């Protein structure tokens, strides 16, 4: 039952950030929109289908004036009448594709047709950056993808990656909002970034951008990537740094507004209530967990040992909850896995055998995707750990090679959920059971 408890707690967190319900609630007070000539809807993200469905339910009595397009992963579906879901990338491939560029171009064109009596909604959620590509002039999509891969591999933060992506784009960093000339543009956001910075989520296509071309150049230089990126990228960013290309907008009209409707904190709150209902004492470590995945796992191992042996900071049965999102710095070669699978593998390795007898460890991406895999993350207990040993799986070797997926696949520890339809970073549920 311990694995069942961990999964029940995790799913309680995920269901709390149902995008359709959150959007519907947010639009319940927007009755003045019903007098608009047209209501244009654009957006991108893994929660795009649910958010669009929420819009159509909220605006059911004026649906004939609603139209729009939202970029989503292929295979995403919702029973919509007026908003078109555009498949912008294949499932499981979290990188920009030409299909995404085509959808982004449609959004720019649609907003540019807005008149003074039109209003617009922009729906943004996790994965929006990859689903909303529109490379800057002179830069190909492949070149932009190459830059993102380099930044990801060296362990750059999402803030740093998005700063660079904004300055290689025609739509990010407030530039989508610049195309709109209507009465009001409201952006509704389900956040997948620590601290909910609206200029970072989906690379902030409808909000002012505080970063500059100079910042983007410095990030590439800081990580030693300046001479590794394509020459066209260096030339474009250098031109921007010299002021030869207009920077992203640093202010936008007051008619352009945004609102966070869902985030990691909401998921953690629901997970905490579920854990308490199941009889666990709860240590909620919050939604601001960042850093190298293995380092965070090492800290969690210390907490678990303290609970097991000293009953501090709380007594078993106990549940430790962590939100946020960690990073993995890859070496020159790596296997297959994701930050959540690697977190559980590292955590198991840091625990003593006697501690493993009392724990169930689960870490999963709330979107149902962990890195370039079909798993949401991993779950481990003594049975799974023993099976891995029986199969001769070497956890140290798998960890060193960032090959956690194959370790958990063979031992039965993969957390397979499919796409959840939402995305608010990661949710980790660490259970420490009382002595039998």
What features would you describe in this structure?
- This protein has 436 residues and is an alpha/beta fold.
- The protein folds into 2 domains: 146 residues, Rossmann fold (3-Layer(aba) Sandwich); 168 residues, 3-Layer(aba) Sandwich (glycerate kinase, domain 1), CATH 3.40.1480.
- Strands 3-2-1-4-5-6 form a 6-stranded parallel sheet, with helices on both faces. It has a 6-stranded mixed sheet with strand order 7-8-12-9-10-11, with helices on both faces.
- Helix 2 packs parallel to helix 3, helix 7 packs across helix 9 and helix 9 packs across helix 10.
- The two termini are 14 Å apart.
Summarize the helices and strands and which ones pair or pack:
Layout: H1 2-15, H2 19-27, E1 38-44, H3 48-58, E2 66-73, E3 83-89, H4 98-112, E4 118-124, H5 128-131, H6 141-153, H7 158-166, H8 175-178, E5 184-190, H9 213-222, H10 231-241, E6 256-262, H11 264-277, E7 281-284, H12 293-310, E8 318-322, H13 339-350, H14 353-356, E9 359-365, E10 377-380, H15 382-390, H16 395-400, H17 404-411, E11 414-415, E12 426-432
Parallel strand pairs: 1-2, 1-4, 2-3, 4-5, 5-6, 7-8
Antiparallel strand pairs: 8-12, 9-10, 9-12, 10-11
């Amino acid at each position: 039952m311990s694995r069942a408890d961990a999964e029940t707690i995790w799913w309680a967190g995920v269901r709390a950030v149902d995008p359709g319900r959150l959007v519907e609630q947010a639009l319940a007070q927007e009755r003045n929109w019903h007098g608009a000539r047209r209501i244009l809807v654009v957006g991108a993200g893994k929660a795009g289908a649910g958010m669009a469905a929420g819009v159509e339910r909220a605006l059911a009595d004026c649906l004939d004036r609603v139209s729009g397009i939202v970029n989503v992963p292929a295979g995403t579906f919702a029973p919509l009448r007026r908003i078109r879901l555009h498949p912008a990338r294949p499932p499981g491939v979290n990188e920009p594709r030409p299909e995404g560029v085509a959808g982004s171009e449609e959004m720019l064109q649609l907003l540019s047709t807005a008149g003074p009596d039109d209003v617009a909604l922009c729906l943004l959620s996790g994965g929006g950056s990859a689903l909303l590509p529109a490379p800057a002039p002179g830069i190909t999509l492949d070149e932009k993808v190459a830059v993102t891969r380099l930044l990801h591999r060296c362990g750059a933060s999402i803030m740093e990656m998005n700063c660079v992506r904004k300055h290689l784009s025609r739509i990010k960093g407030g530039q989508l909002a610049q195309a709109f000339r209507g009465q009001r543009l409201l952006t509704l956001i389900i956040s997948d970034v620590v601290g909910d910075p609206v200029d970072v989520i989906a690379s902030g296509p409808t909000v002012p951008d505080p970063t500059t071309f100079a910042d983007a150049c410095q990030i590439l230089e800081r990580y030693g990537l300046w001479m590794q990126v394509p020459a066209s990228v260096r030339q474009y960013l250098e031109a921007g740094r010299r002021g030869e290309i207009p920077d992203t907008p640093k202010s936008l009209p007051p008619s352009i507004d945004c609102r966070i409707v869902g985030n990691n904190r909401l998921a953690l709150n629901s997970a905490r209530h579920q854990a308490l209902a199941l009889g666990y004492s709860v240590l909620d470590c919050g939604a601001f967990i960042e850093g190298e995945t293995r380092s965070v796992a090492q800290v969690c191992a210390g907490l678990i040992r303290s609970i097991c042996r000293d009953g501090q900071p709380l007594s078993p049965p106990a549940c430790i909850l962590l939100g946020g999102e960690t990073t993995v710095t890859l070496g020159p070669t790596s296997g297959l896995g994701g930050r959540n699978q690697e977190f559980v593998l590292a955590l198991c390795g840091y625990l003593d055998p006697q501690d493993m007898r009392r724990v169930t460890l689960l870490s999963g991406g709330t979107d149902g995707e962990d890195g370039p895999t079909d798993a949401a993350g991993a779950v481990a207990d003594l049975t799974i750990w023993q099976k891995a040993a029986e199969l001769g799986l070497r956890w140290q070797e798998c960890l060193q090679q960032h090959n956690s997926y194959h370790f958990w696949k063979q031992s039965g520890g993969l957390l397979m959920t499919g796409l959840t339809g939402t995305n608010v970073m990661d949710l980790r549920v660490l259970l420490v059971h009382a002595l039998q």
